[in-house]
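In this supplementary section we document a worked example of the pipeline. Step one takes a protein sequence of length 359 as its only input; no multiple sequence alignment statistics are reported here. Step two produces a three-dimensional model, which step three serialises into structure tokens for compact storage. The input and output of this example are shown verbatim.
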Amino acid sequence: MAAALANQPFIAIDTEFRRRDTFFPEPALLQIAGAGSCWLVDPLTLPDTTPLSAILTRPETVKVLHSGSEDLEVFEHWLGILPQPLVDTQKAAAMLGLGFGLGYRDLVRTLLNVDLAKEETQSDWLQRPLTEAQCRYAAQDVTFLAHCWPMLEDRAGQRGILPWILEESAAMTTGGRGPLAKFKSAWKLNPPQLAVLLALIEWRESEARRRDRPRNWILHDKVIQEVSRRLPQSMPQLAEIAGMPSGVLRRHGKQLLACIDDARQEAAVSPPVSLRGPASASVRSLAKSLQPVLTELAQELGMNPEILMPARELEAIARAAAGDSEERPVHWQGWRSETVVKPLVDKAHQLLGERQNAG
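The serialised model returned by step three reads:
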């Protein structure tokens, strides 16, 4: 396979995996399609992944995925690499105005006028041998993708945005917004409470990785939130926390109390940076006023507004215009900087000035 794909300008790739009871995705199947060929690779019996890693990182071959964030986690854990150069056809479709968050079946229907079957979506991909239906379903995840990408690439080339699509895909990383993002009320915590929250999140992350179990199997978000709020200092107090599993208390109770105590002492010396709370009414109003500007920019560019900037980031622009120090997201750099961010920042300052003059 490596030899057959060595000189391909691009390959379409996809994975099947299981992640019901593990922290890391468990690879079950790898699908790769080149020009006129499709390969199904069994990760369970592959003795040497070196040739595969070489294919997935070959600079001259573009790796094409659709909605590939979870696939990237598979490659990172299984092979220790992230495929590069990379194109995500879901992002490409949004940047070409075909729809935001477009599913693979919808992409194939839109570009190729083909309706794909979906009867194997809940298959057990770790079973062996795979059925003929499973193999057929798995193959179509990349064979049609290999037909879609040249069409998207041609449209992007005609509009002069192919470098933007490659840049957008190259910026993809694993991990999302991080586990702290789930604690939406964390901004209400005082410094000791926040320090404990951060320490418990770090402890759970370490345990989840070490034991390869889902985060909430180690300690549920609600329990961490309650421990951080109440700051227990003894085993009986820890046992009173709603939802605290008896097994966790028995095996890790002393460790958790030490973690809490260390975090509180550290906070007394060096308090953690406070988290930003909800925006003020004036900032929310300003952000809402920027939405039509974003929509107009998207129409001019022929893109879907959501791919230009999520609605929550309009609030970040409004905060910055109102004088709050705001760290700019990494993805505001590159093609977005002059095309999207600068017009929105300029408009925010203009609207703010008009409101202040009217006041």
